[in-house]
Each structure stands twice: as C-alpha cells, then as structure tokens.
Amino acid sequence: MSALVRESPQSSTAAVDPSAGAPTRKIIHIDMDAFYASVEQRDDPSLRGKPVAVGGSSQRGVVAAASYEARVYSVRSAMPSVTAKRRCPDLVFVKPRFDVYKAVSAEIHAIFAEHTDLIEPLSLDEAYLDVTVNKQGIASATAIAEAIRRRIREATGLTASAGVSYNKFLAKLASDHRKPDGLFVVTPAMGPGFVEDLPIGRFHGVGPATAAKMERLGIHTGRDLRERPLAFLQERFGKAGPYYHSIARGIDERPVRANRERKSVGAENTFNEDLFAFEAMREALQPIGDKVWRICEAKELRGRTVTLKVKYADFRQITRSQSTARPVASRAELERATIALLGPLMPVPKGVRLLGLTISSFLPEAEEETEAQFSLPL
C-alpha cells in the first residue's frame, strides 16, 4: 500500500514553462455561473427563465449581478439600474442577500477542500485550485474538475464552469471559453497557439485602459503582443511589461496562493439624492468609515494608505489617496485622513452620488509590532 505524498507549502512551486521540460502544474479555475442571480433563481422558482438583476431598482441603484437571460440584453454588473431597465424593460430586480451567497460559497469551498488545500479564492464565486498533488490521488485534473462541477450541482443546485491548464492565466481563460456550465482544457501543446488568436481585450490582467493603449500601439491579438520585444513592453507598460511578454507565450509563473493576503479593505455607498455640501458628505462618510474600521479591527489589519472614491452625478469617478510613514492606528486617525482628502475637492463641480473609502498598504504582523514599539515614548 503506497502512501499519498502531499505538499506542505501553501503555494504551488512547479515550473510552468512547458518548453523548459520542467514538471507541469495542474491548475483549475472554477467560476460559478451568474452566481448571485442563479442563487435567487434557485430559491424562487418564479424567477427561473426570466431576466433577473440583483441590486437596487431605484434611480440610484446599481446592478450587482445579472442572470444569463438579462445578459442577452447587454445587462451587466456595475451598470446603473436605470440603464439596465432601459435595455431590458422586463428586467426583474431582486435585493441582494449576501449572507445567503456567503453560505453557499462556503459549501462550494468545502467541495474544493475535498481535493486540495491549495485554493486561492478570488471572490465568493471563483477560485484557483492547484491539483498537481491532490488529496484523492487523481492523476487527471480534468477528471477532478468534472467531479467538482458534479458535486457543486448535487450540493447546491447551481452550475459552475471550469478551466483546466498548466498555469493560472490559461485556466482563467479556459473557464470563460464555454460558459455557462462548461469545461475546457488548454494543454501545454495548445497553450501558445490558444493565446495568439485571442483579442487582447480577452486577456486576464489587461484592463480596458491598457487594452485601449495596446490597440493604439497596433497590438490587437495575442500574436501581436508576442511580436513585441520585452524592452518595448517594459518601456511602455513598466513593471507589467514582463508579465505581458510571458502571457503572450502562454507562460505564467504565478503560484496558486492559499490564504492569499488581503490587499485592501473598502466600503462605499450610493445615495438616493446627490450630495453637494461638505458637512453632508462628511456625515455620509461616517458609516462607511465605521464599516471599514470594523473589518480592519476584526482582521487585525493596519494600513498606511487611505483612498477616497467619489462618483459624481454624471458617473465620472475620481480617487484621492494619502499614504503615511506608519499605519493608521485608530478610527479617529482614519477620519482625519478622510477629511483631509475630501476638503480639497470642495466645492464639488457636480452633485456626488457615491462615496467610498479604502485602506491598503497593509503591514506584516511582525512589522506592525516593530512600528508600535518605536512609537512608544522613551
């Protein structure tokens, strides 16, 4: 009887370049199909087959998620509810139930954990899994992905799409390839060719602004990107240049990181009426700051950077940030930083429909202790 050897580190380490002859990793990306909307359709049979938007239906509402029936009308998440209703007059709005979504997400993650501890959650409804070495000793990552999708359907009544490949970038692309309720595999032999024919806007990690910049530079597909030298990409895209150079060749060396470090804590609120006055905005920021600080306290997080987000009535959005040498140590300090960022924006050019607040640049726990020690009076 042979013992199953399991990896003890909390990240995958095998090489990912298939041309280098190194061990090939087996990565799965699982993405639930229209997760919030699908949960609502599952729990309310009258919604099945109808275009559903999770979110507020008011003038100030925003779509948090849309069912596939709604997506036919180009209704998308983050879209103003007014626009969504205009595109789809029969759209049914449902208030979000985040406690339910979190509970279902926990069920799904428990299924992932039946196969591996190397799970990197990206959100409630998607995650990367490294199954190169897995708990059940299954040799085929495709078989594991099929088993996970089957178990999710049995346990939750929901469908999931899966992508299987030798790195995170390609697994993510693969899970999108046959949505909804699909499974697609990109093998090492397929990887470079699969990438070269993709429009640059489909590349994970290339946002709309970067895609537009690449288009202006004549980079329209993965093939175009691959033809640009590393020096060219570094000069025009800075630190992201080497990443773009690699993914154009189907190479992605990022490991799957379990217990991924939180990079920021934020909260925001959209208001029923536009705000114009400084005091009204200061008051509106109080519960937002309270929520952010509660999360920081609960997670024992301390960050150096405070960012204020402002969205105006015409949907133009700006952010303003302030970083300090040591982390924000109290709710009062957070409020002072918030007011310092808000003040210079007054008077506002238009009414403000949304305010948000984020803390980032977190310190490692050991570094926090050192900072605290040095701040003590001698």
Automatic annotation (TrEMBL):
Residues bound to Mg(2+): D31, D125
Enzyme class label: transferase
Record-annotated active site: E126
Cofactor annotation: Mg(2+)
Xref: PROSITE patterns: UMUC
Gene Ontology MF term list: damaged DNA binding; DNA-directed DNA polymerase activity; magnesium ion binding
Annotated GO CC locations: cytosol
Main localization of the protein described in the UniProt heading: cytoplasm
Domain of life: Bacteria
One of the GO biological process terms: error-prone translesion synthesis
Location of the region described as Disordered in the Swiss-Prot/TrEMBL record: 1-20
NCBIfam families referenced in this protein's UniProt entry, alphabetically: PRK02406.1
Role of this protein: Poorly processive, error-prone DNA polymerase involved in untargeted mutagenesis. Copies undamaged DNA at stalled replication forks, which arise in vivo from mismatched or misaligned primer ends. These misaligned primers can be extended by PolIV. Exhibits no 3'-5' exonuclease (proofreading) activity. May be involved in translesional synthesis, in conjunction with the beta clamp from PolIII.
Homology family: Belongs to the DNA polymerase type-Y family.
The protein's assembly and partners: Monomer.
Name listed for the protein in its UniProt record: DNA polymerase IV
Species: Plantimonas leprariae
Gene that specifies this protein: dinB
